[in-house]
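Exercise 7.
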Amino acid sequence: MIKEKLDAVPAWKDVNASVKDGNVELKGSVKTEAERNECESSIKNVHGVKSVLNNIDVHPDEATNTSHNSGTTDNSAAVNTVHTTEPTAAGSTEDTDPVLIAAKKALKEYPNIQVEVADDEITVRGDVTKSEANDIMEKLNALKPKKVNNKLNIIKG
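Solution. The predicted structure, written as tokens, is:
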């Protein structure tokens, strides 16, 4: 039923789902934050789904080419250089990455958001409202990084 839901919406063609014991992880990419949120909501409404982990990335210009997989998981990840917004010791050179500096500046009104940069890819995490998430993604995409990984948790607000 999950695969059918994903296949039914052309905007979700590059999203795949891994399912284990009623827990669904969504991966892949869509072009807008709204598509990302709609996909998650749709899958949450499938009978038998206990939880949904939304790891769908938003790429306004292009979507990755992935296939739908049900019942499989991919726990591999390779990160070379990671810069975060976590506090660092005085004199640290961690904030010398120009992408990280620009991302922090763009998101200064969101002090509870965690930003990481690895290989010109920005990953953003934290609890935000839907409108805040849209604003954050718009600001980060305007920086023109190679990719923005949206790991934001949408809360009612």
